[in-house]
Amino acid sequence: MKLATLRTGETGTTAALALGADGYLPLPARDVGELLALPDWQALVAAVAKGEKSAVVPANEAELAALLPTAGKVICCGLNYADHIQELGRERPDYPTLFAKYADTLIGAADAIEVYGSERVDWEAELAVVVGATLTRAGEEEAAAAIAGYTVANDVSMRDWQSRTLQWFQGKAFDATTPLGPVLVTADEFPAGHGFDVRGHVNGELVQHGNSSTLVFGPARLLSYISQFTTLRPGDVVLTGTPGGVGMGMEPPRFLKDGDVLRTEIDGIGQLENLVRIRPGATASH
Amino acid sequence: MKLATLRTGETGTTAALALGADGYLPLPARDVGELLALPDWQALVAAVAKGEKSAVVPANEAELAALLPTAGKVICCGLNYADHIQELGRERPDYPTLFAKYADTLIGAADAIEVYGSERVDWEAELAVVVGATLTRAGEEEAAAAIAGYTVANDVSMRDWQSRTLQWFQGKAFDATTPLGPVLVTADEFPAGHGFDVRGHVNGELVQHGNSSTLVFGPARLLSYISQFTTLRPGDVVLTGTPGGVGMGMEPPRFLKDGDVLRTEIDGIGQLENLVRIRPGATASH
């Protein structure tokens, strides 16, 4: 099945079952993360799906929020595609390179990316893995069984801030810069290991193209590894890294401009399409 | 005033006003972070303090939880004391080196630090700044006014994991390894700029000793800088970095052993005293 988080009114959200062209059927949880934390949420969704359909939100009226607007953990893996590792001139790693974001970074599949005070805004199309069970020091088999499903992310990165210091966090954690969605495709419908294409476009031009089968650290391995040091819970999300083709790897380097449109897509899941807005920073000293 | 978060029953917590030897007066919020998010929390605390004292928890019966067990953001600054920068052989930075943790890392002032699967557990005594108002792209003056107060932290670091990749996150984000407390001292009672001693002891031996007046990036500057890219909210906390004297800087390097006692103290705030427990990791492959 496919799940989404819809906006309701000014500030509210609701989890919903995505019915394709038929729209979205609201579910009794505020977002997909909250839904995944309910015991036996699959049965709940099935029961709602069998019931009254009068509440369906037509597709053209639905406004997608970030899929997991209240995710407790948004953990990202860098340097996870062989071609991206190569374009950065690095060696194939023994361990996953991990960094953290907060849920404030997340926006919906059609929201504008609003960046304040960066002149080197770059793209990173990524497959994201959504956690469906609590994992503490789990082996790979347990981790695989705990994958709720998959979605699409773009780990938009402010390269000027990212390279100011040894730690990437400040260039990766800008509020409202990481689109996540449009839907979660449950693991049973998306065998990630089989290999799915991940593509990034800028103003319609294909700039990134990778395949999930070439990930150095696959989804279950990443979740197992992370769970050795920190507990993962339903609704947490792990971004698996970006394939080659980022702007800073180009000759000359290329960055997003105000008004550009960034499109990120993965076959079998869907696409993000985000207008880029680049604003001046608030303080001249930074 | 001094504020604490106490454990109540199996899993509950309550914010409390710390009355020194007289104990703790519970406040109507689940923890200090939730208290700081209430409008006019100072007046609320004053009203409770003037009322009935029968609810006071004697000091010897109080069990301290992590000061901010549900902090939305725990952002750390590395390389912020000149002597620590020197012991690591680095240059004085133009920008703060920042990385993120999650609240799962936090434990109370007297809790055991339980580490699974690291053989290089190191200490980092730190002054922590607690946010008291929402800050988005704030200048330093606004940031200074938004400091609720200060507390003590030890950014216990698993150096083997920290050095596996370029990003420190995995060595810094182990669950239940960052003691935070014992109390928040409100900013009016703790003029951090005047210079306070930060000390770390292992089994009673002084190993770290710095002074907050020598921070490269002071509390208001850090909060202002961070708020340029991500919103800070009441109950968020920023760890300001550690002075010289960490174990990995010693000749030969020295790390914590199972059964060691780590004590971290800042004059005018109080101390953390944490037994160190080092356990084997769950999987041989990591």
Kindly list the characteristics that best describe this protein.
five-stranded mixed beta sheet, 286 residues, homodimer, Fumarylacetoacetate hydrolase, domain 2, 2 domains, globular, ten-stranded mixed beta sheet, 17 strands, alpha+beta
What does this protein look like?
2 copies of one chain form a homodimer. The first copy, chain A, is an alpha+beta fold. Chain A folds into 2 domains: 2-61, no CATH class; 74-279, Fumarylacetoacetase-like, C-terminal domain (Fumarylacetoacetate hydrolase, domain 2, Alpha-Beta Complex). Chain A is 15% helix and 33% strand. Chain A has helices at residues 32-36, 41-50, 82-87, 140-145, 159-162, 169-172, 219-227; strands spanning 2-8, 12-18, 24-26, 74-78, 97-101, 106-107, 113-116, 121-122, 125-131, 147-154, 157-158, 178-186, 197-202, 205-211, 237-239, 261-266, 270-279. In chain A, strands 1, 2, 3, 4, 5, 6, 9, 10, 12 and 15 form a 10-stranded mixed sheet that branches. A 5-stranded mixed sheet of chain A has the order 7-17-16-13-14, with no helix packed on it. Chain A has a two-stranded antiparallel ribbon with strand order 8-11. The longest helix of chain A is centred in the N-terminal third of the chain and has 10 residues, at 41-50. The model of chain A has no long low-confidence stretch (mean pLDDT 95). At the A-B interface, strand 5 and helix 7 of A face strand 5 and helix 7 of B.
